[in-house]
From TrEMBL:
Record-annotated membrane-spanning stretches: 20-47, 59-82, 109-131, 138-161, 167-184, 204-224, 259-282, 319-343, 355-378, 390-408, 414-443, 464-487
Taxonomy of the source species: Bacteria, Bacillati, Bacillota, Bacilli, Bacillales
DUF112 domain sequence ranges: 20-439
Protein name: Tripartite tricarboxylate transporter permease
UniProt xrefs under InterPro entries: DUF112_TM
Organism: Gracilibacillus salitolerans
Keywords, comma-separated and alphabetical: Membrane, Transmembrane, Transmembrane helix
One Pfam assignment: TctA
Highest rank taxon of the organism: Bacteria
Length: 497
Protein backbone atom coordinates (compact mmCIF):
# COMPACT_ATOMS: atom_id res chain seq x y z
CA UNK A 1 0.00 0.00 0.00
CA UNK A 2 1.40 3.38 -1.00
CA UNK A 3 1.55 6.48 1.18
CA UNK A 4 -1.51 8.07 -0.49
CA UNK A 5 -3.63 4.98 0.05
CA UNK A 6 -2.35 4.81 3.64
CA UNK A 7 -3.30 8.42 4.31
CA UNK A 8 -6.78 7.85 2.87
CA UNK A 9 -7.14 4.78 5.09
CA UNK A 10 -6.14 6.92 8.08
CA UNK A 11 -8.74 9.55 7.29
CA UNK A 12 -11.33 6.80 6.85
CA UNK A 13 -10.61 5.68 10.42
CA UNK A 14 -10.46 9.21 11.82
CA UNK A 15 -13.72 10.35 10.21
CA UNK A 16 -15.74 7.29 11.16
CA UNK A 17 -18.27 7.99 13.94
CA UNK A 18 -16.32 5.73 16.31
CA UNK A 19 -13.10 7.57 15.48
CA UNK A 20 -14.67 11.00 16.06
CA UNK A 21 -16.26 9.82 19.32
CA UNK A 22 -13.04 8.43 20.79
CA UNK A 23 -10.97 11.42 19.67
CA UNK A 24 -13.48 13.71 21.37
CA UNK A 25 -13.42 11.59 24.53
CA UNK A 26 -9.60 11.50 24.53
CA UNK A 27 -9.07 15.25 24.13
CA UNK A 28 -11.77 16.04 26.71
CA UNK A 29 -10.22 13.75 29.34
CA UNK A 30 -6.71 14.95 28.43
CA UNK A 31 -7.66 18.62 28.69
CA UNK A 32 -9.30 18.12 32.08
CA UNK A 33 -6.37 16.14 33.49
CA UNK A 34 -3.84 18.59 32.02
CA UNK A 35 -5.46 21.43 33.96
CA UNK A 36 -4.82 19.69 37.28
CA UNK A 37 -1.31 20.40 38.59
CA UNK A 38 0.71 17.21 38.78
CA UNK A 39 -1.62 14.88 36.89
CA UNK A 40 0.08 14.89 33.52
CA UNK A 41 -0.39 12.79 30.37
CA UNK A 42 1.72 9.90 31.72
CA UNK A 43 -0.72 9.27 34.56
CA UNK A 44 -3.70 9.72 32.22
CA UNK A 45 -2.46 7.25 29.59
CA UNK A 46 -1.39 4.74 32.26
CA UNK A 47 -4.95 4.84 33.63
CA UNK A 48 -6.35 4.40 30.11
CA UNK A 49 -4.43 1.18 29.36
CA UNK A 50 -6.59 -1.20 31.45
CA UNK A 51 -9.75 0.68 30.37
CA UNK A 52 -8.99 0.16 26.68
CA UNK A 53 -8.09 -3.51 27.06
CA UNK A 54 -10.29 -5.47 24.64
CA UNK A 55 -11.11 -2.43 22.49
CA UNK A 56 -10.25 -2.14 18.81
CA UNK A 57 -6.48 -1.28 18.92
CA UNK A 58 -6.77 1.55 16.40
CA UNK A 59 -9.57 3.32 18.26
CA UNK A 60 -7.88 2.75 21.63
CA UNK A 61 -4.63 4.31 20.42
CA UNK A 62 -6.47 7.17 18.73
CA UNK A 63 -8.13 7.94 22.07
CA UNK A 64 -4.85 7.72 24.03
CA UNK A 65 -3.11 9.98 21.52
CA UNK A 66 -5.97 12.45 22.10
CA UNK A 67 -5.38 12.25 25.84
CA UNK A 68 -1.68 13.02 25.27
CA UNK A 69 -1.98 16.17 23.20
CA UNK A 70 -5.15 17.19 25.04
CA UNK A 71 -3.23 17.17 28.34
CA UNK A 72 -0.48 19.35 26.87
CA UNK A 73 -3.17 21.69 25.50
CA UNK A 74 -4.98 21.90 28.85
CA UNK A 75 -1.82 22.17 30.95
CA UNK A 76 -1.39 25.79 29.99
CA UNK A 77 -4.60 26.81 31.80
CA UNK A 78 -3.28 26.33 35.34
CA UNK A 79 0.07 27.83 34.29
CA UNK A 80 -1.60 31.00 33.06
CA UNK A 81 -4.28 31.44 35.71
CA UNK A 82 -2.56 30.12 38.84
CA UNK A 83 1.17 30.02 38.01
CA UNK A 84 0.88 26.31 38.82
CA UNK A 85 2.02 24.33 35.73
CA UNK A 86 -0.26 21.38 35.06
CA UNK A 87 2.57 19.55 33.30
CA UNK A 88 6.26 20.24 32.83
CA UNK A 89 5.82 21.21 29.17
CA UNK A 90 3.78 24.28 30.12
CA UNK A 91 6.18 25.81 32.67
CA UNK A 92 7.48 28.28 30.05
CA UNK A 93 3.90 29.37 29.31
CA UNK A 94 3.62 30.75 32.84
CA UNK A 95 6.49 33.22 32.30
CA UNK A 96 4.28 35.60 30.31
CA UNK A 97 0.84 33.99 30.66
CA UNK A 98 0.62 34.54 34.41
CA UNK A 99 1.69 38.22 34.23
CA UNK A 100 -1.03 38.75 31.59
CA UNK A 101 -3.61 37.20 33.91
CA UNK A 102 -2.40 39.46 36.73
CA UNK A 103 -2.86 42.44 34.43
CA UNK A 104 -6.55 41.56 33.94
CA UNK A 105 -5.99 39.90 30.54
CA UNK A 106 -6.66 36.29 31.52
CA UNK A 107 -9.20 35.81 28.73
CA UNK A 108 -6.82 37.15 26.12
CA UNK A 109 -3.96 34.99 27.46
CA UNK A 110 -6.07 31.84 27.30
CA UNK A 111 -7.21 32.74 23.78
CA UNK A 112 -3.60 33.23 22.64
CA UNK A 113 -2.64 29.91 24.24
CA UNK A 114 -5.56 28.08 22.59
CA UNK A 115 -4.94 29.50 19.11
CA UNK A 116 -1.15 29.04 19.31
CA UNK A 117 -1.58 25.47 20.52
CA UNK A 118 -4.02 24.75 17.71
CA UNK A 119 -1.68 26.24 15.10
CA UNK A 120 1.37 24.43 16.50
CA UNK A 121 -0.46 21.12 16.67
CA UNK A 122 -1.89 21.45 13.16
CA UNK A 123 1.39 22.50 11.54
CA UNK A 124 3.22 19.62 13.18
CA UNK A 125 0.60 17.08 12.06
CA UNK A 126 1.03 18.24 8.46
CA UNK A 127 4.81 17.89 8.82
CA UNK A 128 4.36 14.52 10.52
CA UNK A 129 2.28 13.24 7.64
CA UNK A 130 4.75 14.41 5.01
CA UNK A 131 8.09 13.68 6.63
CA UNK A 132 7.50 10.95 9.26
CA UNK A 133 9.37 8.08 7.53
CA UNK A 134 12.30 10.28 6.51
CA UNK A 135 12.65 12.11 9.84
CA UNK A 136 12.95 8.86 11.76
CA UNK A 137 16.40 8.28 10.25
CA UNK A 138 17.40 11.86 11.16
CA UNK A 139 16.37 11.32 14.76
CA UNK A 140 18.59 8.28 15.26
CA UNK A 141 21.60 10.11 13.77
CA UNK A 142 21.72 12.21 16.98
CA UNK A 143 24.40 10.51 19.07
CA UNK A 144 25.67 11.49 22.55
CA UNK A 145 28.02 14.26 21.22
CA UNK A 146 25.13 15.87 19.30
CA UNK A 147 22.87 15.70 22.36
CA UNK A 148 25.56 17.28 24.53
CA UNK A 149 25.99 20.09 21.99
CA UNK A 150 22.21 20.60 21.85
CA UNK A 151 22.02 20.90 25.64
CA UNK A 152 24.99 23.28 25.57
CA UNK A 153 23.16 25.46 23.06
CA UNK A 154 20.19 25.60 25.41
CA UNK A 155 22.35 26.60 28.37
CA UNK A 156 23.98 29.49 26.55
CA UNK A 157 20.64 31.23 26.77
CA UNK A 158 20.45 31.32 30.57
CA UNK A 159 21.24 35.01 30.54
CA UNK A 160 18.18 35.51 28.34
CA UNK A 161 15.98 34.14 31.11
CA UNK A 162 17.19 36.67 33.65
CA UNK A 163 14.99 39.67 34.27
CA UNK A 164 17.68 41.71 35.96
CA UNK A 165 21.06 40.67 37.24
CA UNK A 166 22.88 38.14 35.04
CA UNK A 167 24.94 37.10 38.07
CA UNK A 168 21.78 36.13 39.94
CA UNK A 169 20.60 34.15 36.88
CA UNK A 170 23.91 32.25 36.80
CA UNK A 171 23.74 31.54 40.56
CA UNK A 172 20.21 30.25 40.08
CA UNK A 173 21.38 28.00 37.22
CA UNK A 174 24.30 26.62 39.25
CA UNK A 175 21.93 25.62 42.05
CA UNK A 176 19.70 23.94 39.43
CA UNK A 177 22.72 21.99 38.18
CA UNK A 178 23.59 20.91 41.71
CA UNK A 179 20.07 19.66 42.35
CA UNK A 180 20.19 17.71 39.06
CA UNK A 181 23.17 15.68 40.31
CA UNK A 182 21.33 14.32 43.36
CA UNK A 183 20.64 10.59 43.24
CA UNK A 184 22.33 7.43 41.96
CA UNK A 185 25.01 8.02 39.35
CA UNK A 186 23.62 6.13 36.31
CA UNK A 187 27.12 5.21 35.12
CA UNK A 188 28.81 4.02 38.31
CA UNK A 189 25.80 3.21 40.48
CA UNK A 190 27.07 5.23 43.44
CA UNK A 191 24.89 7.65 45.36
CA UNK A 192 25.56 11.39 45.05
CA UNK A 193 24.48 14.00 47.60
CA UNK A 194 21.90 11.66 49.11
CA UNK A 195 23.22 12.14 52.67
CA UNK A 196 22.34 8.54 53.43
CA UNK A 197 18.66 9.05 52.65
CA UNK A 198 16.94 6.30 50.67
CA UNK A 199 14.38 8.85 49.49
CA UNK A 200 16.99 10.72 47.46
CA UNK A 201 18.45 7.72 45.62
CA UNK A 202 16.17 8.30 42.62
CA UNK A 203 16.89 12.02 42.59
CA UNK A 204 14.24 14.72 42.83
CA UNK A 205 11.29 14.66 40.44
CA UNK A 206 10.90 17.61 38.11
CA UNK A 207 7.31 18.17 39.16
CA UNK A 208 8.31 18.60 42.81
CA UNK A 209 10.66 21.42 41.84
CA UNK A 210 8.34 23.05 39.28
CA UNK A 211 5.31 23.10 41.58
CA UNK A 212 7.45 24.18 44.52
CA UNK A 213 9.18 27.08 42.76
CA UNK A 214 6.04 28.32 41.04
CA UNK A 215 2.81 27.13 42.69
CA UNK A 216 3.83 26.92 46.37
CA UNK A 217 5.93 30.08 46.06
CA UNK A 218 2.84 31.80 44.66
CA UNK A 219 0.79 30.53 47.60
CA UNK A 220 3.40 31.96 50.00
CA UNK A 221 3.25 35.29 48.15
CA UNK A 222 -0.56 35.37 48.27
CA UNK A 223 -0.50 34.61 51.99
CA UNK A 224 2.04 37.35 52.65
CA UNK A 225 0.00 39.87 50.61
CA UNK A 226 -3.36 38.80 52.07
CA UNK A 227 -4.05 42.26 53.48
CA UNK A 228 -4.12 43.79 50.02
CA UNK A 229 -7.48 44.45 48.39
CA UNK A 230 -9.25 41.29 47.28
CA UNK A 231 -10.37 43.11 44.17
CA UNK A 232 -6.87 43.91 43.09
CA UNK A 233 -4.97 42.84 40.01
CA UNK A 234 -5.65 39.44 38.51
CA UNK A 235 -9.38 39.47 39.24
CA UNK A 236 -10.46 40.83 35.88
CA UNK A 237 -10.91 38.35 33.07
CA UNK A 238 -10.81 40.87 30.25
CA UNK A 239 -11.86 40.47 26.65
CA UNK A 240 -11.14 37.33 24.64
CA UNK A 241 -10.81 39.23 21.39
CA UNK A 242 -7.42 39.55 19.81
CA UNK A 243 -6.64 42.74 17.94
CA UNK A 244 -5.02 42.81 14.52
CA UNK A 245 -1.77 43.81 16.21
CA UNK A 246 -1.97 40.80 18.53
CA UNK A 247 -2.55 38.42 15.62
CA UNK A 248 0.27 40.01 13.67
CA UNK A 249 2.57 39.83 16.69
CA UNK A 250 1.92 36.15 17.40
CA UNK A 251 1.89 34.90 13.80
CA UNK A 252 5.68 34.98 13.42
CA UNK A 253 6.54 33.18 16.70
CA UNK A 254 3.82 30.58 16.08
CA UNK A 255 5.16 29.73 12.62
CA UNK A 256 8.82 29.63 13.65
CA UNK A 257 8.42 27.83 16.94
CA UNK A 258 5.98 25.26 15.57
CA UNK A 259 8.71 24.15 13.19
CA UNK A 260 11.38 24.22 15.90
CA UNK A 261 9.12 22.39 18.36
CA UNK A 262 8.38 19.67 15.82
CA UNK A 263 12.10 19.13 15.10
CA UNK A 264 12.95 18.98 18.82
CA UNK A 265 9.99 16.70 19.42
CA UNK A 266 11.31 14.00 17.10
CA UNK A 267 14.58 13.81 19.05
CA UNK A 268 14.33 11.03 21.64
CA UNK A 269 14.58 12.54 25.11
CA UNK A 270 13.98 16.16 24.11
CA UNK A 271 10.17 16.38 24.35
CA UNK A 272 7.74 19.23 24.90
CA UNK A 273 9.47 20.64 27.99
CA UNK A 274 12.83 21.31 26.37
CA UNK A 275 11.12 22.42 23.14
CA UNK A 276 9.04 25.03 24.98
CA UNK A 277 12.05 26.43 26.87
CA UNK A 278 14.28 26.62 23.80
CA UNK A 279 11.49 28.24 21.76
CA UNK A 280 10.88 30.83 24.46
CA UNK A 281 14.58 31.65 24.64
CA UNK A 282 14.98 31.71 20.85
CA UNK A 283 12.03 34.07 20.45
CA UNK A 284 13.35 36.38 23.16
CA UNK A 285 16.76 36.45 21.50
CA UNK A 286 15.39 37.66 18.18
CA UNK A 287 12.69 39.96 19.58
CA UNK A 288 13.01 43.69 18.95
CA UNK A 289 11.79 44.35 22.51
CA UNK A 290 13.16 41.49 24.65
CA UNK A 291 12.58 43.56 27.78
CA UNK A 292 8.83 42.89 27.38
CA UNK A 293 9.35 39.14 27.95
CA UNK A 294 8.38 38.03 31.44
CA UNK A 295 5.96 40.94 31.77
CA UNK A 296 3.03 39.66 29.71
CA UNK A 297 4.45 39.50 26.19
CA UNK A 298 2.19 38.07 23.48
CA UNK A 299 5.22 36.56 21.75
CA UNK A 300 6.47 35.12 25.03
CA UNK A 301 3.23 33.19 25.47
CA UNK A 302 2.59 32.21 21.84
CA UNK A 303 6.09 30.75 21.26
CA UNK A 304 6.15 28.04 23.98
CA UNK A 305 2.49 27.18 23.45
CA UNK A 306 2.99 26.55 19.73
CA UNK A 307 6.23 24.70 20.37
CA UNK A 308 5.09 22.30 23.09
CA UNK A 309 2.08 21.19 21.06
CA UNK A 310 4.19 20.77 17.93
CA UNK A 311 6.70 18.71 19.92
CA UNK A 312 3.88 16.46 21.11
CA UNK A 313 3.10 15.42 17.54
CA UNK A 314 6.80 15.23 16.69
CA UNK A 315 7.33 12.72 19.51
CA UNK A 316 5.22 10.23 17.55
CA UNK A 317 7.83 10.08 14.76
CA UNK A 318 10.39 7.86 16.57
CA UNK A 319 7.59 5.93 18.29
CA UNK A 320 5.60 5.01 15.18
CA UNK A 321 8.49 4.75 12.71
CA UNK A 322 11.18 3.11 14.85
CA UNK A 323 9.41 1.85 17.95
CA UNK A 324 11.62 4.10 20.09
CA UNK A 325 9.85 6.21 22.75
CA UNK A 326 11.15 9.78 22.78
CA UNK A 327 9.75 10.75 26.17
CA UNK A 328 8.19 9.34 29.31
CA UNK A 329 4.72 9.71 27.86
CA UNK A 330 5.54 7.96 24.59
CA UNK A 331 7.24 5.20 26.63
CA UNK A 332 3.87 4.55 28.27
CA UNK A 333 2.28 4.73 24.80
CA UNK A 334 4.75 2.05 23.67
CA UNK A 335 3.51 -0.11 26.53
CA UNK A 336 -0.06 0.50 25.37
CA UNK A 337 0.88 -0.64 21.84
CA UNK A 338 2.32 -3.88 23.21
CA UNK A 339 -0.66 -4.52 25.50
CA UNK A 340 -2.95 -4.11 22.48
CA UNK A 341 -0.86 -6.62 20.49
CA UNK A 342 0.91 -4.15 18.20
CA UNK A 343 4.61 -3.62 17.64
CA UNK A 344 5.43 -0.04 16.55
CA UNK A 345 8.39 0.27 14.23
CA UNK A 346 9.36 0.20 10.55
CA UNK A 347 6.88 -2.57 9.76
CA UNK A 348 3.87 -0.83 11.30
CA UNK A 349 3.27 1.45 8.32
CA UNK A 350 3.09 -1.49 5.90
CA UNK A 351 1.43 -4.08 8.13
CA UNK A 352 -1.11 -1.92 9.94
CA UNK A 353 -1.55 1.28 7.89
CA UNK A 354 -4.93 1.98 9.53
CA UNK A 355 -3.15 2.27 12.90
CA UNK A 356 -0.15 4.30 11.69
CA UNK A 357 -2.10 6.74 9.54
CA UNK A 358 -5.24 6.59 11.69
CA UNK A 359 -3.39 8.06 14.69
CA UNK A 360 -1.85 10.81 12.54
CA UNK A 361 -5.13 11.67 10.77
CA UNK A 362 -7.02 11.74 14.07
CA UNK A 363 -4.76 14.57 15.25
CA UNK A 364 -6.36 16.92 12.69
CA UNK A 365 -9.78 16.31 14.23
CA UNK A 366 -8.34 16.35 17.75
CA UNK A 367 -6.80 19.80 17.33
CA UNK A 368 -10.07 21.18 15.96
CA UNK A 369 -11.98 19.67 18.89
CA UNK A 370 -9.51 21.20 21.34
CA UNK A 371 -10.01 24.65 19.87
CA UNK A 372 -13.81 24.30 19.71
CA UNK A 373 -13.96 22.95 23.27
CA UNK A 374 -11.63 25.48 24.82
CA UNK A 375 -12.46 28.83 23.20
CA UNK A 376 -16.14 28.91 24.29
CA UNK A 377 -15.15 27.74 27.77
CA UNK A 378 -12.52 30.42 28.34
CA UNK A 379 -14.91 32.88 30.10
CA UNK A 380 -15.91 30.12 32.51
CA UNK A 381 -12.40 28.73 33.01
CA UNK A 382 -11.01 32.20 33.62
CA UNK A 383 -13.50 32.71 36.44
CA UNK A 384 -11.09 30.69 38.55
CA UNK A 385 -9.49 34.07 39.17
CA UNK A 386 -12.68 35.34 40.81
CA UNK A 387 -12.52 32.66 43.47
CA UNK A 388 -11.96 34.25 46.89
CA UNK A 389 -8.28 34.36 47.73
CA UNK A 390 -8.39 32.03 50.81
CA UNK A 391 -10.24 29.37 48.79
CA UNK A 392 -7.90 29.81 45.81
CA UNK A 393 -4.84 29.38 48.03
CA UNK A 394 -6.34 26.22 49.52
CA UNK A 395 -7.14 24.77 46.09
CA UNK A 396 -3.67 25.45 44.65
CA UNK A 397 -2.06 23.94 47.75
CA UNK A 398 -4.35 20.89 47.67
CA UNK A 399 -3.86 20.13 43.96
CA UNK A 400 -0.10 20.59 44.26
CA UNK A 401 0.11 18.19 47.20
CA UNK A 402 -2.16 15.63 45.51
CA UNK A 403 -0.27 15.92 42.23
CA UNK A 404 3.10 15.25 43.83
CA UNK A 405 1.85 12.49 46.11
CA UNK A 406 0.08 10.73 43.20
CA UNK A 407 3.38 10.29 41.38
CA UNK A 408 5.51 8.69 44.08
CA UNK A 409 3.19 8.06 47.04
CA UNK A 410 6.02 9.46 49.13
CA UNK A 411 5.48 11.78 52.10
CA UNK A 412 9.14 12.78 51.77
CA UNK A 413 8.35 14.35 48.37
CA UNK A 414 5.69 16.48 50.06
CA UNK A 415 8.33 17.86 52.44
CA UNK A 416 10.57 18.53 49.43
CA UNK A 417 7.68 20.31 47.69
CA UNK A 418 7.23 22.64 50.66
CA UNK A 419 11.00 23.19 50.90
CA UNK A 420 11.23 24.20 47.25
CA UNK A 421 8.18 26.39 47.79
CA UNK A 422 10.06 28.31 50.47
CA UNK A 423 13.15 28.47 48.23
CA UNK A 424 11.01 29.78 45.37
CA UNK A 425 9.43 32.41 47.61
CA UNK A 426 12.85 33.59 48.85
CA UNK A 427 14.12 33.68 45.25
CA UNK A 428 11.17 35.85 44.33
CA UNK A 429 11.70 38.16 47.30
CA UNK A 430 15.40 38.64 46.50
CA UNK A 431 14.91 38.82 42.70
CA UNK A 432 16.63 35.55 41.79
CA UNK A 433 14.93 34.32 38.59
CA UNK A 434 13.44 30.80 38.77
CA UNK A 435 13.52 29.94 35.01
CA UNK A 436 17.35 29.48 34.86
CA UNK A 437 17.05 27.12 37.85
CA UNK A 438 14.45 25.01 36.06
CA UNK A 439 16.30 25.07 32.73
CA UNK A 440 19.60 23.98 34.33
CA UNK A 441 17.84 21.20 36.23
CA UNK A 442 16.18 19.89 33.05
CA UNK A 443 19.25 20.09 30.84
CA UNK A 444 21.84 19.23 33.51
CA UNK A 445 21.05 15.53 33.81
CA UNK A 446 20.87 14.93 30.07
CA UNK A 447 23.96 17.03 29.45
CA UNK A 448 26.03 15.09 31.98
CA UNK A 449 24.83 11.75 30.67
CA UNK A 450 25.56 12.67 27.04
CA UNK A 451 29.01 14.01 27.92
CA UNK A 452 29.99 10.91 29.85
CA UNK A 453 28.69 8.61 27.10
CA UNK A 454 30.73 10.60 24.57
CA UNK A 455 33.86 10.27 26.70
CA UNK A 456 33.31 6.54 27.06
CA UNK A 457 32.93 6.11 23.30
CA UNK A 458 36.08 8.16 22.55
CA UNK A 459 38.20 6.77 25.42
CA UNK A 460 38.26 10.18 27.04
CA UNK A 461 39.06 12.26 23.95
CA UNK A 462 37.20 15.57 23.73
CA UNK A 463 37.80 15.60 19.95
CA UNK A 464 34.66 13.47 19.49
CA UNK A 465 32.63 16.65 19.96
CA UNK A 466 34.14 18.13 16.78
CA UNK A 467 34.23 15.01 14.60
CA UNK A 468 30.45 14.74 14.25
CA UNK A 469 28.97 17.28 11.82
CA UNK A 470 25.77 17.78 13.84
CA UNK A 471 27.61 18.38 17.12
CA UNK A 472 30.11 20.66 15.39
CA UNK A 473 27.35 22.86 13.95
CA UNK A 474 25.57 22.99 17.31
CA UNK A 475 28.78 23.93 19.15
CA UNK A 476 29.42 26.74 16.64
CA UNK A 477 25.86 27.96 17.22
CA UNK A 478 26.47 27.79 20.98
CA UNK A 479 29.57 29.97 20.67
CA UNK A 480 27.69 32.45 18.50
CA UNK A 481 24.74 32.45 20.90
CA UNK A 482 27.07 33.17 23.81
CA UNK A 483 29.14 35.80 22.00
CA UNK A 484 26.32 37.66 20.26
CA UNK A 485 24.84 39.42 23.35
CA UNK A 486 28.36 40.44 24.48
CA UNK A 487 29.24 41.82 21.06
CA UNK A 488 25.86 43.55 20.89
CA UNK A 489 26.44 45.18 24.29
CA UNK A 490 29.94 46.36 23.33
CA UNK A 491 28.61 47.72 20.04
CA UNK A 492 25.80 49.59 21.80
CA UNK A 493 28.22 51.19 24.28
CA UNK A 494 30.54 52.29 21.47
CA UNK A 495 27.61 53.68 19.54
CA UNK A 496 26.35 55.56 22.59
CA UNK A 497 29.79 57.06 23.29
Amino acid sequence: MGAIEGILTGFEVAFSWEGILFVLLGVFVGTFIGMLPGLGPISAIAIMIPITYGMDPTLALVMMAGVYYGAVFGGSTSSILLNAPGISGTVASSFDGYPMAQQGKAGKALAIAAISSFAGGTISVVLLMIFAPMLASVAISFGPPAYFALMLLGLTAIASLSEGSTIKALISAVVGFMIATIGIDPQTGTGRFTFGSMNLLDGIDFLVIALGLFAIAEVCYLVMSRHKSATGSGKEIGSLKLSKDDVKEMSGPVGRQSLLGFILGILPGAGATIASFISYIAEKRIAKKPEEFGKGSVKGLAAPEASNNAATSGAFVPLLSLGIPGSGTTAVMLGAFLVLGLQPGPMLMGDRPEVFWGIIASMYIGNIFLLVLNLPLIPYIARILTIPRPLLISLVLMFSLIGVYAISFSVFDLYLLLAFGVIGFLMRMFAFPAPPFILAFILGGMMEQSFRQSMTISNGSISIMFENNISLVLIILSVLSFAFPIAKSIWSKKKAS
